[in-house]
Amino acid sequence: MKTETVKSPIKCQGSKRKIIDFISSNICWSGKGKWLEPFVGSASVVLNIKPERALLADKNKQLIDFYKDLQTNIISIDSVFNYLLYSSKELEKYKDNYFYEVRERFNKNYNSLDFFFLNCCSFNGLLRYNKKGEFTTSFGHNSKKLSTRFIMRKVEQISSFKEITKNYQFLHSDFKFLLKEKIEIDDFVYLDPPYLEYYSSYYNKWNKKDVLELIEKVSSLPCKFALSSIKVDDKKNVDDNLIYEYFKEKSFIKIVDKEHFYIINQARSRSKVREILILN
Question: Which of 192, 225, 272 is nearest to 26 (CA)?
Answer without folding.
Answer: 225
